[in-house]
Task: structure prediction
Amino acid sequence: MGKRIIITGGGWAGCAAAAAATHLGAQTTLLERTDMLLGTGLVGGIMQNNGRFTAQEECTALGGGTLFQVIEKNLRHKAIHFPGHHHASLYDVSSTPSAVRRFLEENSVKIEYRARISSVEMRGNTIGSVSDDHGRTWEGDIFLDTTGTAGPMNNCTRYGTGCAMCVLRCPAFGGRVSLTALTGIKEIQGRRADGSIGAMSGSCKLSKESLAPQIIEQLDREGCVVIPLPPELMEDHLRIKACQQYALGAFRQNLVLLDTGKAKLMAPYFNLQKLHCLHGFENARYEDPYAGGKGNSIRFLAMAPRDNALQVQGIENLFCAGEKAGLLVGHTEAIVTGTLAGYNAVCRAEGHKLLVLPRSLAVGEAIAFVREQMRTPAGLAQKYTFSGSVLLEHLKQMNLYITDIPMIRRRVQSAGLSGIFSALPKKGTEK
Ligand SMILES: Cc1cc2nc3c(=O)[nH]c(=O)nc-3n(C[C@H](O)[C@H](O)[C@H](O)COP(=O)(O)OP(=O)(O)OC[C@H]3O[C@@H](n4cnc5c(N)ncnc54)[C@H](O)[C@@H]3O)c2cc1C
Result:
């Protein structure tokens, strides 16, 4: 029988950790607060834009590409361009969650829905078991915290414009609870440039059917529609956005829509009455958040102190990934860290040395760089993504942003890590 790996939080990070752990033969349980997988990934969809391309290919060369293959089968558009972003792909936000669920179930991951972890039993500085709101308890050898950093409602009210009724559905399922915080570890909060806490999510979903036929047709054909805004309709939310890679003038001067099956509007919120003034948007309505005319969810409120193997510092058998592992924005960022955390969880359970990815790889550099940056007040006011802003600029300077796939594979091979995630090291072969 494999060791028991318990993953709390079924967003992209938790799903990737589950895929990695079950592949290595661990008895893997994924606990999700709501009734759907993917968390904030239920409303996202953008992959492979800018440096996310490199990170995805690196992770694949490392042997951790299975979830990317699932996504690839659910893409609506591939290799598209939109302002500031190249070779992006867009997954279908309706079909992808179920495809991921089926993939995990077929690979023996036990998924428990409506399992909101709200208490923990500690044995010294080791977690013995976790329990949910209904009193169900899961014992394990190693635990992962992939609960994300969004909400709950009191935070969206305190640091944002109130609950905008997003897909996280806190009123129905209870808000996010951090496993790390339950163990007594003090968490880290992200800041905005003005010193206030958290950051607002940067896009909303419009119901596609509510838009004019010519907009729907262009979205279906090209994946992207850019509509110049008259000055009186421009809104200035660039500074509050979690996704700084989209904090470009083009996203203020234009309405940028992307086709994820829904019309993804690249603004944290946009006044509905103003939207109705635009030709083709007379009947527009929000699908997520429901109050997208007023606000959006607030994130980056609770991150775990961790090392570069993604172990939570201070707890022997706890790992973290995704937004919980730092100010990392994105599905790709969640998947690559989730894969590493899932791999290391099994390594720890089986008595192997933990893997720290080298800084000669974009993913290794990102994990180490973000941790260093978060130690400074200025670094805590940034967000980090392979797709733009500070991290991409840093990777460019280090010559780590490349899109030549054979070269990415050679770099992984030079590091001696080709396929590392696909099997545990043989005893006695670890460096
Ligand atoms: C509106 C929006 C649009 C976005 N668009 C994109 C995009 O197009 N491309 C992109 O790359 N990134 C996008 N992002 C960012 C991206 O979605 C996230 O950075 C990334 O997916 C985070 O994944 P995660 O697994 O760390 O956390 P989350 O997605 O927050 O998942 C955490 C999960 O844990 C669960 N959970 C919380 N507490 C508990 C508990 N106590 N017990 C059990 N379960 C719990 C939650 O229900 C949730 O399912 C977007 C984010 C938002 C909000």
In short: Residues 326 and 370 are 7 Å apart (CA to CA). Residues 8-14, 31-34, 39-41, 43-46, 115-117, 146-148, 150, 168, 176-177, 201, 203, 297, 322-324, 329-332, 334 surround flavin-adenine dinucleotide (CB under 6 Å).
